[in-house]
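Quick start: read one record
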Amino acid sequence: MSWMAVGLLIGGLITLVVGAEALVRGASRLAAALGIAPLVIGLTIVAFGTSSPELAVSVQSALSGQADIALGNVVGSNIFNVLFILGLSAVIVPLVVAQQLVRLDVPLMIGVSALVWVLALDGSIARWEGVLLFAGIIAYTLFLIVQSRREKNKEVTDEYAGEYAEREPRTWQRTALNIALAIGGLVLLVLGARWFVDGATQLARSFGLSELIIGLTIVAAGTSMPEVATSIVAALRGERDIAVGNVVGSNIFNLLAVLGLTAVVAPGEGVAVARGMVTVDLPFMVAVAVTCLPIFFTGHTIARWEGVVFLAYYGVYTAYLFLTATQHAALDEFSTALFFFVIPLTLITLGVSMTRELRQRQVMRKA
């Protein structure tokens, strides 16, 4: 194992996290000083800012000709965000899901996930497809701004106001400091992304693993650290809308903005998609997104047991990746158990939960 690669990976990760934090703090304070509503700041600047490491790493990977890391980072981060971050947050405290997420954002996340899978079926995400995806994030951001200005739920607006409302005097020194934080954060993101990608590439080669596996696991988990911190802290503070909304918003941003921009700037005609990504990882990402809808739908909460299920699935998925990478003798048995026992059992459980929820709603309407 190359200790230089480990040093680059850890140093790059720390630089990415610090850069993301500086960017989010500077940009959100500037937005608050300009009179932008805290709800808009939380749904756009903060949610997208926590995804800035994914953007920096994927773009850097694409420019370096490492398409597997670029795409693996996006897909792996989306899987990690839902299964690990939401799972861990729900284990800490059951999460309340806003109705807007169930009606709009989660279906949008499912639709965009499926769209990316369809676009990748021909073996690449072409440049024009990247432009299409990036146009989607612009439209989605504008919609969020308009929608947030119509938000009438006082509990939701108070929650975001408590987290993102301006708490500092408006002086030119403060403004200059916030601009410096935002610019410094961007510089650190670019630098950290370069170190992180170089370290991940060297590590993959030293262990004999593919860049795709490294992208789906180490890179994906590393670049998702800002989402981990934001969602867990929000859950501990009782800001459960923020904990869930951050994950869903970041996933949409990853697919539309990160993958879209990566395909636009990548050399050649876009981002090449490995066959294994099309047949395993992208379908799994879509399945994870689809699983959110019935879980969010049942009582508009993510219970602790559902959080445990999420964490268990992430463990199973990671084990599958490494068994595949090493061609372990247990791979066939593991795959059989996964597809013919675990997945059907989960679908049955979700079906029963949804049926009970619908029956309870019918009873309440009749009463």
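The longest strand covers residues 124-126.
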